[in-house]
Give the backbone structure.
Amino acid sequence: MARAEPYLYLLPALLGLIVWVYRPLVQTFDYSFYNWNLLPTTPKLNVGWSNYSQLLHLPQLGQVIDTSGFFIAGLIIFGLLIPLLIGTVIENVSLRARSFYRALIFLPVLVSPVVTATVWQFLLAPSGGFVDTILGWLGMDQTNWLQQPNTAKYAVALIGGWKVLGISVLIVTAGLAAISTEYYEAAAIDGASRAQVFRRITLPLLSPTLMFMFITVVLLSSQIIFPLLNVLTQGGPEGSTTDIYYFLYSNGFTSFNVGLASAAAVCFFIVFGLLAIACVKLLDRFSFYDN
Amino acid sequence: MSLITLSPPGAEASDAEPGAPVPPSIRRAPAPNPPDHGIPSWHAVSRRSVVTGHVVLGLLAVFTVFPIAWMYLTSFRPPNDLFSSGLVSTSVSGANYATAVHAINLGVLTEHTVIVATCVALGQLLTSLLAAYAFTRYRFRGRNVLFYVFIGSWLVPFQVTMLPNYVLLSRLGLLNTLAGIIVPQLSSAFAILLLRQHLNGFPTELLEAARAEGQSSWATLWTVVVPNLGPALAALGILLFVSSWNEYFWPLLVYRNPNSVLQLGIQGFLNSVTVNYGALMAAAGLATLPIFAIYALLQRRVVNAFVRSGLR
Protein backbone atom coordinates (compact mmCIF):
# COMPACT_ATOMS: atom_id res chain seq x y z
CA MET A 1 0.00 0.00 0.00
CA ALA A 2 2.72 2.43 1.03
CA ARG A 3 4.48 1.85 -2.28
CA ALA A 4 1.40 2.87 -4.21
CA GLU A 5 0.94 6.07 -2.21
CA PRO A 6 2.95 8.50 -4.36
CA TYR A 7 1.24 7.24 -7.50
CA LEU A 8 -2.18 7.73 -5.95
CA TYR A 9 -1.31 11.32 -5.09
CA LEU A 10 -0.11 11.91 -8.64
CA LEU A 11 -3.09 10.23 -10.27
CA PRO A 12 -5.62 13.09 -10.49
CA ALA A 13 -3.18 15.58 -12.02
CA LEU A 14 -1.66 12.95 -14.28
CA LEU A 15 -5.03 11.80 -15.51
CA GLY A 16 -5.96 15.35 -16.48
CA LEU A 17 -2.76 15.88 -18.45
CA ILE A 18 -3.02 12.52 -20.19
CA VAL A 19 -6.62 13.03 -21.25
CA TRP A 20 -6.38 16.72 -22.22
CA VAL A 21 -2.77 17.11 -23.39
CA TYR A 22 -1.01 13.88 -24.35
CA ARG A 23 -3.94 11.91 -25.78
CA PRO A 24 -4.95 14.77 -28.12
CA LEU A 25 -1.30 15.32 -29.06
CA VAL A 26 -1.08 11.73 -30.29
CA GLN A 27 -4.47 12.02 -31.95
CA THR A 28 -3.40 15.15 -33.81
CA PHE A 29 -0.59 13.07 -35.35
CA ASP A 30 -3.20 10.53 -36.35
CA TYR A 31 -5.62 13.08 -37.81
CA SER A 32 -2.87 14.53 -39.96
CA PHE A 33 -3.05 11.46 -42.21
CA TYR A 34 -6.78 11.73 -42.85
CA ASN A 35 -9.22 13.91 -44.71
CA TRP A 36 -12.07 14.76 -42.38
CA ASN A 37 -14.49 17.62 -41.77
CA LEU A 38 -15.11 17.18 -38.01
CA LEU A 39 -18.61 15.75 -38.49
CA PRO A 40 -19.11 12.43 -36.67
CA THR A 41 -21.28 11.16 -39.54
CA THR A 42 -18.74 11.59 -42.32
CA PRO A 43 -16.07 8.92 -42.63
CA LYS A 44 -12.40 9.73 -42.23
CA LEU A 45 -10.43 9.11 -45.39
CA ASN A 46 -6.83 7.95 -45.08
CA VAL A 47 -4.74 10.05 -47.45
CA GLY A 48 -1.20 9.22 -46.28
CA TRP A 49 1.22 12.11 -46.40
CA SER A 50 -0.79 14.24 -48.79
CA ASN A 51 -1.85 16.73 -46.10
CA TYR A 52 1.81 17.43 -45.45
CA SER A 53 2.69 17.96 -49.10
CA GLN A 54 -0.39 20.13 -49.51
CA LEU A 55 0.74 22.18 -46.51
CA LEU A 56 4.22 22.75 -47.91
CA HIS A 57 2.78 23.95 -51.20
CA LEU A 58 0.27 26.37 -49.72
CA PRO A 59 0.77 29.83 -51.22
CA GLN A 60 0.07 31.60 -47.91
CA LEU A 61 2.56 29.51 -45.88
CA GLY A 62 5.38 32.02 -46.26
CA GLN A 63 3.20 34.91 -45.23
CA VAL A 64 1.89 33.04 -42.19
CA ILE A 65 5.42 32.32 -40.97
CA ASP A 66 6.47 35.94 -41.64
CA THR A 67 3.53 37.23 -39.64
CA SER A 68 4.41 34.99 -36.69
CA GLY A 69 7.98 36.28 -36.86
CA PHE A 70 6.66 39.83 -36.92
CA PHE A 71 4.55 39.30 -33.80
CA ILE A 72 7.45 37.62 -31.99
CA ALA A 73 9.72 40.55 -32.85
CA GLY A 74 7.08 43.02 -31.67
CA LEU A 75 6.61 41.21 -28.37
CA ILE A 76 10.38 40.99 -27.86
CA ILE A 77 10.55 44.78 -28.10
CA PHE A 78 7.80 45.16 -25.48
CA GLY A 79 8.71 42.13 -23.37
CA LEU A 80 12.48 42.43 -23.36
CA LEU A 81 14.03 45.63 -24.71
CA ILE A 82 11.74 48.25 -23.19
CA PRO A 83 11.71 46.49 -19.77
CA LEU A 84 15.52 46.40 -19.83
CA LEU A 85 15.60 50.11 -20.58
CA ILE A 86 13.13 50.83 -17.81
CA GLY A 87 15.01 48.54 -15.43
CA THR A 88 18.05 50.77 -15.80
CA VAL A 89 16.21 53.97 -14.86
CA ILE A 90 13.93 52.57 -12.15
CA GLU A 91 16.87 52.64 -9.72
CA ASN A 92 16.98 56.41 -10.06
CA VAL A 93 13.69 57.04 -8.30
CA SER A 94 12.89 56.51 -4.65
CA LEU A 95 11.54 53.21 -3.35
CA ARG A 96 8.15 54.70 -2.66
CA ALA A 97 7.81 56.13 -6.18
CA ARG A 98 9.03 52.81 -7.54
CA SER A 99 6.23 50.84 -5.92
CA PHE A 100 3.72 53.45 -7.04
CA TYR A 101 4.80 53.10 -10.68
CA ARG A 102 4.94 49.33 -10.41
CA ALA A 103 1.39 49.16 -9.11
CA LEU A 104 0.21 51.13 -12.15
CA ILE A 105 2.36 49.32 -14.70
CA PHE A 106 1.02 45.99 -13.44
CA LEU A 107 -2.65 46.78 -14.18
CA PRO A 108 -2.83 45.48 -17.81
CA VAL A 109 -1.83 42.02 -16.58
CA LEU A 110 -5.20 41.78 -14.85
CA VAL A 111 -7.23 42.83 -17.86
CA SER A 112 -8.54 39.89 -19.89
CA PRO A 113 -7.49 39.53 -23.52
CA VAL A 114 -11.07 40.11 -24.66
CA VAL A 115 -11.43 43.32 -22.67
CA THR A 116 -8.00 44.40 -23.90
CA ALA A 117 -9.10 43.90 -27.50
CA THR A 118 -12.39 45.69 -26.84
CA VAL A 119 -10.80 48.76 -25.28
CA TRP A 120 -8.16 49.07 -27.96
CA GLN A 121 -10.65 48.66 -30.75
CA PHE A 122 -12.49 51.62 -29.25
CA LEU A 123 -9.27 53.65 -28.90
CA LEU A 124 -8.34 52.87 -32.50
CA ALA A 125 -11.84 53.28 -33.94
CA PRO A 126 -11.94 55.29 -37.18
CA SER A 127 -13.51 58.76 -37.15
CA GLY A 128 -13.96 59.77 -33.53
CA GLY A 129 -11.75 57.21 -31.78
CA PHE A 130 -9.18 58.58 -29.36
CA VAL A 131 -6.08 57.91 -31.45
CA ASP A 132 -7.57 59.32 -34.65
CA THR A 133 -8.84 62.42 -32.88
CA ILE A 134 -5.38 63.14 -31.50
CA LEU A 135 -3.78 62.50 -34.89
CA GLY A 136 -6.39 64.81 -36.44
CA TRP A 137 -5.34 67.59 -34.07
CA LEU A 138 -1.78 67.05 -35.21
CA GLY A 139 -2.93 67.38 -38.80
CA MET A 140 -2.40 63.73 -39.70
CA ASP A 141 -4.63 61.53 -41.82
CA GLN A 142 -7.23 59.40 -40.13
CA THR A 143 -6.75 55.68 -40.53
CA ASN A 144 -8.86 52.61 -39.97
CA TRP A 145 -5.99 50.98 -38.10
CA LEU A 146 -7.40 47.48 -37.72
CA GLN A 147 -8.96 47.21 -41.16
CA GLN A 148 -6.00 48.02 -43.40
CA PRO A 149 -3.46 45.38 -44.39
CA ASN A 150 -0.49 47.69 -43.86
CA THR A 151 -1.48 48.89 -40.38
CA ALA A 152 -3.42 46.00 -38.80
CA LYS A 153 -0.26 44.00 -38.00
CA TYR A 154 1.29 46.94 -36.18
CA ALA A 155 -1.90 47.66 -34.28
CA VAL A 156 -2.15 44.03 -33.09
CA ALA A 157 1.53 43.97 -32.08
CA LEU A 158 1.05 47.19 -30.12
CA ILE A 159 -1.97 45.79 -28.29
CA GLY A 160 -0.11 42.55 -27.53
CA GLY A 161 2.81 44.66 -26.34
CA TRP A 162 0.54 46.57 -24.00
CA LYS A 163 -0.52 43.26 -22.48
CA VAL A 164 3.02 41.90 -21.87
CA LEU A 165 4.87 45.12 -21.01
CA GLY A 166 3.75 45.43 -17.39
CA ILE A 167 4.58 41.90 -16.27
CA SER A 168 7.87 41.96 -18.19
CA VAL A 169 8.96 45.15 -16.47
CA LEU A 170 8.20 43.60 -13.09
CA ILE A 171 10.09 40.39 -13.92
CA VAL A 172 13.14 42.27 -15.20
CA THR A 173 13.24 44.64 -12.23
CA ALA A 174 12.87 41.65 -9.87
CA GLY A 175 15.85 40.10 -11.65
CA LEU A 176 17.82 43.34 -11.25
CA ALA A 177 16.96 43.59 -7.58
CA ALA A 178 18.30 40.07 -7.06
CA ILE A 179 21.82 41.03 -8.21
CA SER A 180 24.11 41.33 -5.22
CA THR A 181 25.19 44.88 -4.39
CA GLU A 182 28.77 43.73 -3.73
CA TYR A 183 29.48 43.73 -7.44
CA TYR A 184 28.36 47.30 -7.83
CA GLU A 185 30.30 48.39 -4.78
CA ALA A 186 33.45 46.74 -6.10
CA ALA A 187 32.91 48.37 -9.51
CA ALA A 188 32.44 51.76 -7.86
CA ILE A 189 35.72 51.33 -5.97
CA ASP A 190 37.46 50.44 -9.23
CA GLY A 191 36.03 53.59 -10.81
CA ALA A 192 33.97 51.85 -13.50
CA SER A 193 31.69 54.00 -15.65
CA ARG A 194 27.95 53.40 -15.73
CA ALA A 195 28.16 51.93 -19.23
CA GLN A 196 30.89 49.55 -18.11
CA VAL A 197 28.90 48.51 -15.07
CA PHE A 198 25.88 47.80 -17.26
CA ARG A 199 27.82 45.81 -19.84
CA ARG A 200 30.12 43.90 -17.52
CA ILE A 201 27.94 43.34 -14.45
CA THR A 202 24.25 43.99 -15.00
CA LEU A 203 23.85 42.34 -18.37
CA PRO A 204 25.70 39.07 -17.61
CA LEU A 205 24.06 38.68 -14.21
CA LEU A 206 20.66 39.41 -15.66
CA SER A 207 21.14 36.99 -18.55
CA PRO A 208 19.11 34.11 -17.00
CA THR A 209 16.15 36.45 -16.61
CA LEU A 210 16.57 37.84 -20.11
CA MET A 211 16.88 34.38 -21.65
CA PHE A 212 13.81 33.25 -19.74
CA MET A 213 11.85 36.20 -21.10
CA PHE A 214 13.15 35.49 -24.60
CA ILE A 215 12.06 31.84 -24.46
CA THR A 216 8.60 32.56 -23.11
CA VAL A 217 8.02 35.35 -25.62
CA VAL A 218 9.03 33.11 -28.53
CA LEU A 219 6.96 30.16 -27.31
CA LEU A 220 3.92 32.02 -26.04
CA SER A 221 3.67 34.86 -28.56
CA SER A 222 1.06 33.11 -30.67
CA GLN A 223 -1.03 32.29 -27.62
CA ILE A 224 -0.84 35.88 -26.39
CA ILE A 225 -1.80 37.22 -29.82
CA PHE A 226 -4.53 34.67 -30.60
CA PRO A 227 -7.44 36.22 -28.66
CA LEU A 228 -6.63 39.62 -30.14
CA LEU A 229 -6.76 38.19 -33.64
CA ASN A 230 -9.94 36.26 -33.05
CA VAL A 231 -11.73 39.23 -31.52
CA LEU A 232 -10.34 42.06 -33.66
CA THR A 233 -9.25 41.01 -37.12
CA GLN A 234 -10.14 37.32 -37.66
CA GLY A 235 -6.73 37.06 -39.32
CA GLY A 236 -7.55 39.75 -41.89
CA PRO A 237 -7.59 42.12 -43.61
CA GLU A 238 -6.38 40.10 -46.60
CA GLY A 239 -4.80 37.56 -44.29
CA SER A 240 -2.27 40.14 -43.10
CA THR A 241 -2.62 39.22 -39.42
CA THR A 242 -2.94 35.43 -39.82
CA ASP A 243 -0.10 33.91 -37.85
CA ILE A 244 0.70 30.21 -37.43
CA TYR A 245 -1.81 29.44 -34.71
CA TYR A 246 -4.56 31.50 -36.20
CA PHE A 247 -3.97 29.58 -39.40
CA LEU A 248 -4.42 26.30 -37.48
CA TYR A 249 -7.54 27.57 -35.81
CA SER A 250 -9.23 28.83 -38.94
CA ASN A 251 -8.40 25.69 -40.90
CA GLY A 252 -9.83 23.53 -38.14
CA PHE A 253 -12.90 25.47 -37.11
CA THR A 254 -13.77 27.70 -40.04
CA SER A 255 -12.86 25.57 -43.06
CA PHE A 256 -13.27 22.28 -41.12
CA ASN A 257 -10.17 20.96 -42.83
CA VAL A 258 -9.07 18.75 -39.93
CA GLY A 259 -6.35 16.86 -41.79
CA LEU A 260 -4.54 19.93 -43.04
CA ALA A 261 -4.87 21.75 -39.70
CA SER A 262 -3.49 18.70 -37.90
CA ALA A 263 -0.57 18.34 -40.31
CA ALA A 264 0.25 22.00 -39.74
CA ALA A 265 -0.09 21.52 -35.97
CA VAL A 266 2.34 18.60 -36.05
CA CYS A 267 4.91 20.56 -38.10
CA PHE A 268 4.73 23.65 -35.93
CA PHE A 269 4.76 21.63 -32.73
CA ILE A 270 7.99 19.96 -33.85
CA VAL A 271 9.56 23.25 -34.98
CA PHE A 272 8.63 25.06 -31.77
CA GLY A 273 9.71 22.08 -29.67
CA LEU A 274 13.16 22.11 -31.30
CA LEU A 275 13.28 25.87 -30.84
CA ALA A 276 12.46 25.49 -27.15
CA ILE A 277 15.16 22.86 -26.67
CA ALA A 278 17.66 25.07 -28.51
CA CYS A 279 16.70 28.00 -26.28
CA VAL A 280 17.15 25.97 -23.11
CA LYS A 281 20.56 24.80 -24.35
CA LEU A 282 21.44 28.44 -25.06
CA LEU A 283 20.25 29.37 -21.61
CA ASP A 284 22.58 26.76 -20.14
CA ARG A 285 25.56 27.86 -22.19
CA PHE A 286 25.40 31.61 -22.20
CA SER A 287 23.83 32.39 -18.89
CA PHE A 288 26.14 33.58 -16.23
CA TYR A 289 25.19 32.55 -12.73
CA ASP A 290 25.97 34.30 -9.56
CA ASN A 291 26.71 31.38 -7.26
CA MET B 1 19.61 24.73 -15.27
CA SER B 2 17.14 22.80 -17.33
CA LEU B 3 13.52 22.99 -18.30
CA ILE B 4 12.63 22.97 -14.64
CA THR B 5 13.17 26.70 -14.45
CA LEU B 6 9.85 27.78 -15.77
CA SER B 7 9.41 30.65 -13.44
CA PRO B 8 11.61 33.65 -14.08
CA PRO B 9 15.01 33.43 -12.45
CA GLY B 10 15.33 35.98 -9.72
CA ALA B 11 11.60 35.95 -9.07
CA GLU B 12 12.10 33.67 -6.10
CA ALA B 13 14.94 35.67 -4.71
CA SER B 14 13.00 38.84 -4.86
CA ASP B 15 9.97 39.09 -2.72
CA ALA B 16 10.36 42.78 -3.32
CA GLU B 17 6.71 43.38 -3.90
CA PRO B 18 5.59 46.92 -4.30
CA GLY B 19 5.18 48.53 -0.96
CA ALA B 20 6.87 45.69 0.87
CA PRO B 21 9.97 46.38 2.87
CA VAL B 22 12.94 45.12 0.88
CA PRO B 23 14.44 42.07 2.57
CA PRO B 24 17.89 42.75 3.97
CA SER B 25 19.50 40.27 1.58
CA ILE B 26 18.74 42.38 -1.43
CA ARG B 27 18.78 45.79 0.12
CA ARG B 28 21.34 47.91 -1.61
CA ALA B 29 24.00 49.97 0.06
CA PRO B 30 24.33 49.48 3.77
CA ALA B 31 24.76 53.22 4.09
CA PRO B 32 25.75 54.52 7.51
CA ASN B 33 22.82 56.89 7.63
CA PRO B 34 20.16 54.98 5.72
CA PRO B 35 18.75 57.04 2.87
CA ASP B 36 15.00 57.39 3.06
CA HIS B 37 14.70 57.02 -0.70
CA GLY B 38 16.56 53.73 -1.07
CA ILE B 39 18.94 55.02 -3.68
CA PRO B 40 22.03 52.88 -3.92
CA SER B 41 25.11 54.66 -2.77
CA TRP B 42 27.47 53.05 -5.25
CA HIS B 43 26.55 55.53 -7.85
CA ALA B 44 25.59 59.04 -7.05
CA VAL B 45 22.18 59.75 -8.52
CA SER B 46 22.11 63.15 -10.06
CA ARG B 47 19.01 65.28 -10.05
CA ARG B 48 18.83 64.92 -13.82
CA SER B 49 18.70 61.14 -13.72
CA VAL B 50 15.97 61.28 -11.09
CA VAL B 51 13.95 63.45 -13.45
CA THR B 52 14.70 61.09 -16.36
CA GLY B 53 13.53 58.21 -14.23
CA HIS B 54 10.24 59.90 -13.40
CA VAL B 55 9.66 60.93 -17.02
CA VAL B 56 10.29 57.42 -18.41
CA LEU B 57 8.28 55.66 -15.72
CA GLY B 58 5.54 58.28 -15.90
CA LEU B 59 5.16 57.84 -19.66
CA LEU B 60 5.07 54.09 -19.24
CA ALA B 61 2.45 54.32 -16.51
CA VAL B 62 0.30 56.55 -18.72
CA PHE B 63 0.60 54.06 -21.58
CA THR B 64 -0.45 51.15 -19.37
CA VAL B 65 -3.17 52.87 -17.36
CA PHE B 66 -4.74 55.16 -19.92
CA PRO B 67 -6.74 52.54 -21.88
CA ILE B 68 -8.23 51.22 -18.63
CA ALA B 69 -9.08 54.71 -17.39
CA TRP B 70 -10.55 55.55 -20.78
CA MET B 71 -12.77 52.48 -20.61
CA TYR B 72 -14.28 53.58 -17.28
CA LEU B 73 -14.51 57.25 -18.27
CA THR B 74 -16.32 56.37 -21.48
CA SER B 75 -18.70 54.03 -19.71
CA PHE B 76 -20.08 56.93 -17.64
CA ARG B 77 -20.70 59.25 -20.58
CA PRO B 78 -24.23 59.78 -21.86
CA PRO B 79 -24.75 57.24 -24.66
CA ASN B 80 -25.57 59.71 -27.42
CA ASP B 81 -22.56 62.03 -27.22
CA LEU B 82 -19.83 59.43 -27.55
CA PHE B 83 -18.48 60.37 -30.93
CA SER B 84 -20.26 63.70 -31.32
CA SER B 85 -19.00 66.00 -28.61
CA GLY B 86 -15.27 65.38 -28.79
CA LEU B 87 -13.07 63.46 -26.40
CA VAL B 88 -14.27 64.97 -23.15
CA SER B 89 -17.76 65.16 -21.82
CA THR B 90 -18.94 67.03 -18.78
CA SER B 91 -22.13 65.12 -18.16
CA VAL B 92 -22.19 61.81 -16.33
CA SER B 93 -24.72 59.08 -16.93
CA GLY B 94 -25.33 55.49 -15.89
CA ALA B 95 -27.39 54.70 -18.96
CA ASN B 96 -24.63 52.64 -20.56
CA TYR B 97 -24.65 50.30 -17.59
CA ALA B 98 -28.37 49.78 -17.84
CA THR B 99 -28.05 49.01 -21.54
CA ALA B 100 -25.15 46.63 -20.99
CA VAL B 101 -26.85 44.66 -18.23
CA HIS B 102 -29.83 43.96 -20.47
CA ALA B 103 -28.00 43.50 -23.75
CA ILE B 104 -25.74 40.64 -22.69
CA ASN B 105 -27.57 39.06 -19.77
CA LEU B 106 -24.82 40.16 -17.43
CA GLY B 107 -26.24 38.50 -14.31
CA VAL B 108 -26.22 35.00 -15.78
CA LEU B 109 -22.81 35.47 -17.39
CA THR B 110 -21.31 36.67 -14.12
CA GLU B 111 -22.79 33.73 -12.24
CA HIS B 112 -21.36 31.30 -14.83
CA THR B 113 -17.95 32.97 -14.69
CA VAL B 114 -17.85 32.84 -10.89
CA ILE B 115 -18.72 29.12 -10.95
CA VAL B 116 -16.09 28.32 -13.57
CA ALA B 117 -13.31 30.39 -11.99
CA THR B 118 -13.99 29.01 -8.50
CA CYS B 119 -14.15 25.38 -9.63
CA VAL B 120 -11.03 25.67 -11.80
CA ALA B 121 -9.03 27.45 -9.09
CA LEU B 122 -9.99 25.00 -6.33
CA GLY B 123 -9.70 21.95 -8.58
CA GLN B 124 -6.26 22.89 -9.87
CA LEU B 125 -5.14 23.77 -6.38
CA LEU B 126 -6.18 20.34 -5.10
CA THR B 127 -4.73 18.19 -7.90
CA SER B 128 -1.52 20.24 -7.89
CA LEU B 129 -1.14 20.06 -4.13
CA LEU B 130 -1.46 16.28 -4.18
CA ALA B 131 1.02 15.93 -7.05
CA ALA B 132 3.55 18.37 -5.58
CA TYR B 133 3.26 16.52 -2.24
CA ALA B 134 4.02 13.22 -3.96
CA PHE B 135 7.11 14.68 -5.62
CA THR B 136 8.55 16.18 -2.46
CA ARG B 137 7.65 13.50 0.09
CA TYR B 138 8.48 10.34 -1.79
CA ARG B 139 11.36 8.85 -3.74
CA PHE B 140 9.70 6.41 -6.09
CA ARG B 141 10.36 4.55 -9.30
CA GLY B 142 9.71 6.72 -12.33
CA ARG B 143 9.84 9.92 -10.34
CA ASN B 144 12.01 11.79 -12.82
CA VAL B 145 10.17 10.47 -15.85
CA LEU B 146 6.83 11.50 -14.37
CA PHE B 147 8.22 14.90 -13.51
CA TYR B 148 9.23 15.44 -17.13
CA VAL B 149 5.79 14.27 -18.23
CA PHE B 150 4.36 17.14 -16.20
CA ILE B 151 6.85 19.74 -17.44
CA GLY B 152 6.55 18.56 -21.02
CA SER B 153 2.85 19.34 -21.09
CA TRP B 154 3.84 22.99 -20.73
CA LEU B 155 5.40 22.81 -24.19
CA VAL B 156 2.27 21.55 -25.93
CA PRO B 157 0.39 24.59 -27.19
CA PHE B 158 -3.34 24.63 -26.90
CA GLN B 159 -3.82 24.99 -30.62
CA VAL B 160 -2.07 21.70 -31.32
CA THR B 161 -4.50 19.73 -29.19
CA MET B 162 -7.72 21.66 -29.74
CA LEU B 163 -9.27 19.56 -32.52
CA PRO B 164 -9.08 16.20 -30.72
CA ASN B 165 -10.19 17.91 -27.51
CA TYR B 166 -13.17 19.38 -29.27
CA VAL B 167 -14.10 15.94 -30.60
CA LEU B 168 -13.80 14.41 -27.12
CA LEU B 169 -15.86 17.16 -25.52
CA SER B 170 -18.57 16.63 -28.09
CA ARG B 171 -18.55 12.84 -27.55
CA LEU B 172 -18.85 13.36 -23.79
CA GLY B 173 -21.76 15.71 -24.39
CA LEU B 174 -19.91 18.55 -22.70
CA LEU B 175 -20.21 21.11 -25.47
CA ASN B 176 -22.15 24.20 -24.40
CA THR B 177 -21.87 23.27 -20.72
CA LEU B 178 -19.91 24.86 -17.90
CA ALA B 179 -18.46 21.45 -17.05
CA GLY B 180 -16.95 21.44 -20.53
CA ILE B 181 -14.89 24.49 -19.57
CA ILE B 182 -14.02 23.28 -16.07
CA VAL B 183 -13.11 19.60 -16.48
CA PRO B 184 -10.24 19.99 -18.99
CA GLN B 185 -8.60 22.66 -16.82
CA LEU B 186 -8.48 20.67 -13.59
CA SER B 187 -4.77 19.92 -13.75
CA SER B 188 -1.93 22.20 -14.64
CA ALA B 189 1.80 21.63 -14.80
CA PHE B 190 2.43 25.23 -13.87
CA ALA B 191 0.64 25.02 -10.52
CA ILE B 192 2.44 21.77 -9.69
CA LEU B 193 5.85 23.32 -10.42
CA LEU B 194 5.09 26.36 -8.32
CA LEU B 195 3.82 24.36 -5.33
CA ARG B 196 6.75 21.99 -5.62
CA GLN B 197 9.10 24.96 -5.30
CA HIS B 198 7.34 25.96 -2.11
CA LEU B 199 7.27 22.42 -0.74
CA ASN B 200 10.97 21.94 -1.42
CA GLY B 201 11.61 24.64 1.13
CA PHE B 202 9.32 22.93 3.64
CA PRO B 203 11.10 21.84 6.85
CA THR B 204 11.50 18.06 6.57
CA GLU B 205 11.69 17.77 10.38
CA LEU B 206 7.98 18.46 10.56
CA LEU B 207 7.23 15.63 8.13
CA GLU B 208 9.60 13.30 9.99
CA ALA B 209 8.01 14.14 13.32
CA ALA B 210 4.55 13.37 11.96
CA ARG B 211 5.83 10.12 10.50
CA ALA B 212 7.42 9.17 13.83
CA GLU B 213 4.09 9.71 15.54
CA GLY B 214 2.59 7.21 13.14
CA GLN B 215 0.47 9.76 11.32
CA SER B 216 -0.63 8.73 7.84
CA SER B 217 0.66 10.71 4.87
CA TRP B 218 -2.88 11.88 4.12
CA ALA B 219 -3.37 13.24 7.64
CA THR B 220 0.08 14.85 7.55
CA LEU B 221 -0.81 16.62 4.34
CA TRP B 222 -3.88 18.26 5.86
CA THR B 223 -2.69 18.86 9.43
CA VAL B 224 0.96 19.74 8.86
CA VAL B 225 1.62 20.76 5.26
CA VAL B 226 -1.48 22.72 4.29
CA PRO B 227 -1.64 24.96 7.38
CA ASN B 228 2.02 25.87 6.88
CA LEU B 229 1.58 26.47 3.17
CA GLY B 230 -1.27 28.92 3.63
CA PRO B 231 0.18 32.06 2.02
CA ALA B 232 1.57 30.15 -0.96
CA LEU B 233 -1.73 28.36 -1.54
CA ALA B 234 -3.66 31.61 -1.23
CA ALA B 235 -1.40 33.38 -3.71
CA LEU B 236 -1.63 30.54 -6.20
CA GLY B 237 -5.38 30.32 -5.70
CA ILE B 238 -5.79 34.00 -6.52
CA LEU B 239 -3.61 33.66 -9.58
CA LEU B 240 -5.59 30.66 -10.82
CA PHE B 241 -8.90 32.39 -10.14
CA VAL B 242 -7.87 35.51 -12.05
CA SER B 243 -6.49 33.50 -14.99
CA SER B 244 -9.61 31.41 -15.14
CA TRP B 245 -11.85 34.47 -14.90
CA ASN B 246 -10.03 35.95 -17.89
CA GLU B 247 -9.71 32.67 -19.80
CA TYR B 248 -10.81 32.88 -23.39
CA PHE B 249 -9.68 29.79 -25.25
CA TRP B 250 -11.55 26.96 -23.47
CA PRO B 251 -14.88 28.79 -23.35
CA LEU B 252 -14.45 29.61 -27.04
CA LEU B 253 -13.90 25.96 -27.83
CA VAL B 254 -16.76 24.70 -25.69
CA TYR B 255 -19.44 27.32 -26.31
CA ARG B 256 -20.94 28.21 -29.66
CA ASN B 257 -23.18 30.94 -28.26
CA PRO B 258 -22.40 34.12 -26.35
CA ASN B 259 -24.68 33.14 -23.44
CA SER B 260 -21.85 31.44 -21.58
CA VAL B 261 -19.22 33.37 -19.62
CA LEU B 262 -18.35 37.06 -19.43
CA GLN B 263 -15.47 36.99 -21.90
CA LEU B 264 -17.55 35.43 -24.67
CA GLY B 265 -20.47 37.70 -23.85
CA ILE B 266 -18.30 40.76 -24.34
CA GLN B 267 -16.92 39.38 -27.57
CA GLY B 268 -20.42 38.72 -28.88
CA PHE B 269 -21.41 42.23 -27.93
CA LEU B 270 -18.35 43.67 -29.69
CA ASN B 271 -19.01 41.68 -32.85
CA SER B 272 -22.67 42.63 -33.09
CA VAL B 273 -23.73 44.52 -36.19
CA THR B 274 -23.67 48.02 -34.77
CA VAL B 275 -21.24 48.44 -31.93
CA ASN B 276 -22.57 50.38 -28.96
CA TYR B 277 -19.20 51.44 -27.54
CA GLY B 278 -20.60 53.14 -24.46
CA ALA B 279 -22.46 50.05 -23.29
CA LEU B 280 -19.55 47.88 -24.40
CA MET B 281 -17.14 49.82 -22.18
CA ALA B 282 -19.62 49.49 -19.32
CA ALA B 283 -19.81 45.71 -19.80
CA ALA B 284 -16.03 45.38 -20.12
CA GLY B 285 -15.55 47.57 -17.06
CA LEU B 286 -17.99 45.49 -15.00
CA ALA B 287 -16.36 42.25 -16.12
CA THR B 288 -12.96 43.52 -14.97
CA LEU B 289 -14.12 45.09 -11.71
CA PRO B 290 -13.99 41.95 -9.49
CA ILE B 291 -10.39 41.36 -10.56
CA PHE B 292 -9.40 44.94 -9.78
CA ALA B 293 -11.14 44.57 -6.41
CA ILE B 294 -9.07 41.47 -5.61
CA TYR B 295 -5.95 43.38 -6.68
CA ALA B 296 -6.82 46.35 -4.49
CA LEU B 297 -7.32 44.09 -1.48
CA LEU B 298 -4.38 41.77 -1.92
CA GLN B 299 -1.96 43.77 -4.02
CA ARG B 300 1.34 42.34 -2.83
CA ARG B 301 0.26 38.76 -3.04
CA VAL B 302 -1.25 39.13 -6.49
CA VAL B 303 1.78 40.88 -7.98
CA ASN B 304 4.16 38.40 -6.44
CA ALA B 305 2.22 35.42 -7.74
CA PHE B 306 2.12 36.85 -11.25
CA VAL B 307 5.80 37.76 -11.31
CA ARG B 308 6.65 34.21 -10.28
CA SER B 309 4.53 32.76 -13.00
CA GLY B 310 6.08 34.71 -15.87
CA LEU B 311 4.01 35.47 -18.92
CA ARG B 312 1.43 32.75 -18.44
